């Protein structure tokens, strides 16, 4: 009986520690979100720069072949062709 009481007290203590850790995490998360909001406000909403860059254009096989790449002729090993 006494052993069960000790175990129950230990479980309650662990639960209290877990709840304290959860509350600390929530407070830290809230502080980070507030800091990010302040940064956005200071930058005028432009955190990532004034002009976002467009993605690079996709190149096709025809674009590659316009550069007249060297052709492999099976006379040397692929390791030597660079």
What is the compact description of this entry?
By secondary structure, the chain is mainly alpha-helical.
Give a written overview of the molecule:
With 82 residues, this protein is mainly alpha-helical. The protein has one domain. 56% of the residues lie in helices and 0% in strands. It is built from 2 helices and no strands. It has helices spanning 2-42, 61-65. The chain is elongated and about 85 Å long. The N and C termini lie far apart (79 Å). The model has no long low-confidence stretch (mean pLDDT 82).
Any chance you could write out the topology, listing elements then pairs?
Blueprint: H1 2-42, H2 61-65
Percent strand equals: under 5%
| Main beta-sheet annotation | none
End-to-end span in angstroms? 79 Å
The helix-and-strand class reads mainly alpha
Integer-rounded radius of gyration = 31 Å
Low-confidence stretches: none
Strand segment count: 0
Overall mean confidence score, pLDDT:
82
The total tally of domains equals 1
Give the proportion of residues in helices. 55-70%
């Amino acid at each position: 009986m006494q052993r069960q009481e000790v175990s129950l007290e230990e479980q309650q203590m662990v639960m209290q520690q877990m709840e304290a850790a959860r509350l600390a995490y929530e407070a830290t998360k809230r502080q980070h979100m507030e800091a990010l909001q302040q940064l956005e406000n200071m930058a005028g909403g432009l955190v990532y720069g004034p002009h976002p860059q467009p993605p690079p254009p996709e190149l096709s096989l025809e674009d590659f072949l316009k550069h007249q790449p060297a052709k492999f002729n099976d006379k040397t090993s692929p390791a030597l062709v660079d």
